[in-house]
Each structure stands twice: as C-alpha cells, then as structure tokens.
Design goal:
3-stranded antiparallel sheet, single chain
C-alpha cells in the first residue's frame, strides 16, 4: 500500500485487526495468523492476507522472522484505532517518494478543481494522476487510496467524491508536536513544526505561503472549536494566507496560539 502500488484489500481496519491479533498472541506462525484473519471454514474467495500483512510490515507494526510474526516494538502498544492513526502519521514521512504520498499531495492540492471530477476514480482523474506521478494509476489503486485518505483525515468522501477538509489529520499532527498550551507561535515557527508530519497535505510551493482548502478548513475548524487561536498582526511581516472563504476568520495568519486539541 505504501511501498509499490496502492491496493484495495489492505484497508485500515484490516491492518489494525492483524496488529491486534499479533499483539495478543505475542508471536504467531504466519500460517496461523492467516487462518485467524481468514478462517478456512467460513472464508471463500481470493485471499487478502498477503496485501494486509505487507502493509502492516511497511508501517513497522509487525515483523517476520523465520515465519514467526511478532510486533516490531512490543513496548509500544496501540490501544485503539485512534492511536493506530497517529502511528501511521508518524511513519508516513518515510514514504515521501511513494505512489500514495504523490497521489495524496496532488488530490488535496487541487482545491476547488477537485469538484470538476465526477469521482476520484474517473478516467480524467486517473489520467491527471498518471501524468503528474509518472506512473500508471488505475481505478483499484485510487479506491485503495480512498480508504486511507479518509482514515488519516485528509478530507471526507461522499461516495467517490473527495471533500477537502484536513481537520482530523491536522488535529492529530498537532497533538504529536508537543506544543505548549496557551503559547503563541509565530506562523513560520508553527509551520516549521507542522512540516515534521504534515508535509504530505501541503503544496510543494510552500514559499508562496498560501494554505490550500483542506488546510484552511482545518485551521478554521480548530479555531472555531477553541483548540487554537488564529491571529492576525498587521505589524508582522511573516503571514500565511487562508484559502478565501465566507467563514468568519479570513485574514492572513501571522501567529497561532495553541490551546489544546480535543480528544476524539
């Protein structure tokens, strides 16, 4: 999923289920793990196990030593799906050259142009992604992308239409940055910290200091929720521009006060 082609079989829930089985068993032969994931007495059809297992290893959740599967880090236990999401966010920067990363960055930064496509899997979108990534992107690949992009919080999916609002992703990224509550961060300092895990959704042209729709929507929602405070200072040179909107806060952002993100 994150190394090589994107796939539809390795959806987040299946990967997390595999992780929890291994966590519970401590160590387990690969064939026994597959039997638990796909019970032979009730499972029929094409096996998804290899794709799920491959994704779990890519995300540094489990490892295979001579056919015995165990956790990569037995001391780091992911208690729930929210902790799993944060784990994926922390390892995602390792896949900056991946098909998943490239497609994510392209789609999120289409802004309003994303609505020109009937679906993320239609032929025009696939042609655009193929041209920009230099790889052949097929419909099953982008259907696989859909599950992970929504899980990570790049935006919402209405069927196969992508709605850019990265509130969930940004909220989780910010929670990983060890920011001090009630502290005001100049926007360049904040963005420098945010780039550690949030780069995948930002435009490659960060020098122009323009937030895309997904990031702008996220910041406005965080602001409205009281999790951060967006501030405008006319006397400050460094500012980032929010994507134009009818929302209340529509001024250039010069600094951000961190108040504390709410638990999901």
């Amino acid at each position: 999923m994150f190394v090589g082609n994107m796939v539809t079989e390795a959806i987040p829930a299946r990967v997390f289920a595999l992780y929890k089985i291994v966590e519970n068993k401590k160590s387990i032969p690969r064939n026994e793990l597959q039997a638990l994931m796909e019970p032979p007495e009730i499972y029929e059809g094409t096996s998804y196990f290899s794709a799920i297992f491959k994704t779990a290893t890519e995300l540094k959740l489990v490892e295979n030593k001579d056919g015995i599967i165990s956790l990569v880090d037995a001391n780091k236990q992911l208690k729930n799906i929210d902790e799993f999401r944060k784990h994926v966010i922390t390892v995602l920067p390792e896949f900056e050259e991946s098909q998943f990363w490239k497609c994510s960055n392209i789609i999120v930064n289409l802004n309003e142009r994303v609505y020109e496509y009937g679906a993320i899997s239609d032929s025009n979108m696939l042609n655009l992604l193929s041209e920009r990534t230099g790889e052949t992107i097929k419909a099953p690949m982008i259907r696989g992308w859909r599950f992970w992009s929504q899980f990570l919080g790049f935006g919402c999916m209405n069927g196969f239409t992508f709605l850019p609002n990265a509130y969930v992703y940004c909220k989780n990224v910010i929670s990983l940055l060890n920011l001090e509550k009630k502290t005001e961060y100049p926007i360049d300092v904040f963005m420098s910290k945010f780039m550690q895990y949030g780069k995948v959704i930002l435009s490659e042209k960060t020098g122009d200091r323009n937030f895309n729709i997904a990031m702008s929507s996220a910041l406005r929602e965080l602001h409205d929720n009281g999790e951060i405070v967006l501030k405008f200072g006319s006397d400050q040179d460094m500012k980032w521009i929010l994507y134009p909107s009818k929302e209340l806060f529509n001024q250039p952002v010069s600094s951000i006060v961190y108040k504390g993100v709410k638990r999901e």
